[in-house]
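Hi R.,

Here's the chain you asked about this morning:
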Amino acid sequence: MSTNKPIKCVSKEYNKEPFFLLQSNGSDKRYVVSFQQKDNIKSFIFDFISRSQSDLQLKVRDLNDPDQPRDFEGMSSKNALQTLIDKYDGVVFHDGCNELMIRIPESGEYMAFDEHGLVFIYTQADYSNDLARYEIKYKPKEKLIYEFDHWHYRPGNAKEDLACFISDLGLH
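And here is the predicted structure, written out as tokens:
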């Protein structure tokens, strides 16, 4: 677990300060959060997982071939998911060729940790106070990393680790 590895994606022009913005199509909204710190992302994901009263729905999208991404889906208990996120820390937080999506069945809320290191929260709830705990400010005009020239980081063993993560989660 190295702290000097990028969180999935890097751009020298991108803002390094954490922020969030809201996107809406009128009836649905999503929070887009640039945490910038792995520990805060992990803590937020674990807080999100703890909101569920039952097993969680999961999807991992393998973007190794961007023209033909592969989705792996299934269910996981909260404890198993947290344990495997810890075990596969490198692939979850540093491999810029995958996305992790977690859905809470009771509420329908879901979050995605994408290949750019951004967290998307799809909800009708207000997450402003939750994000304030991480000292993340609302900046509605901030640009997202994929709007700049950027590159995706991929550790040397990422393909194998991603396959093991998917297998250990029991996704199909």
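One quick note: The chain has a mean pLDDT of 95.

Cheers,
M.
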